[in-house]
Each structure stands twice: as C-alpha cells, then as structure tokens.
C-alpha cells in the first residue's frame, strides 16, 4: 500500500471478500439452473486506513504507515 517510499497510503476504499465465499458462489452458479449473468460479491468495503490498522495488529513488526 505504500507508494514508492511514500510514508502514506492511498485515500481509497475497496471491496473485500473471503475466498471461501467466492468458491461457494461459483458452486451455486453451477448448480442453480436459474443463475445467469454477473454477480458482484463483496463482504465489506474498507478504507486503506482500516486495512493498515488490521495489518499493524496482525503484524506488529512491519512498518506500516498510520496515515
């Protein structure tokens, strides 16, 4: 998330989903005859600041910017 040595992260938010949910959606799409078209799968939307906090909590030895 750090851009070329920049001490800050991007001011962006992204959708995140568990890979198990993606696999389950593929299985359902295959098994359900009425399934057609495209589907958008998102568990939650978080800002990079929240992602940075999660990573700092999980990996305290990494140097992750806080702004």
Chain-wise SSE layout:
Blueprint: E1 13-16, H1 19-31, E2 44-47, H2 48-58
Major beta sheet summary = 2 strands, antiparallel
Question: How would the global form be characterised?
Answer: elongated
Instruction: Give the DSSP E fraction (strand runs of 2 or more residues).
Output: 5-15%
Strand order across the biggest sheet?
Answer: 1-2
- Number of E-type strands: 2
Helix content: 25-40%
Report the order of strands and helices: EHEH
Give the N-to-C terminal Cα separation: 11 Å
Mean pLDDT: 86
Unreliable segments of 5+ consecutive residues: none
- Judged by helices, strands and strand pairing, the structural class is alpha+beta
Count of alpha/pi helices: 2
Radius of gyration: 17 Å
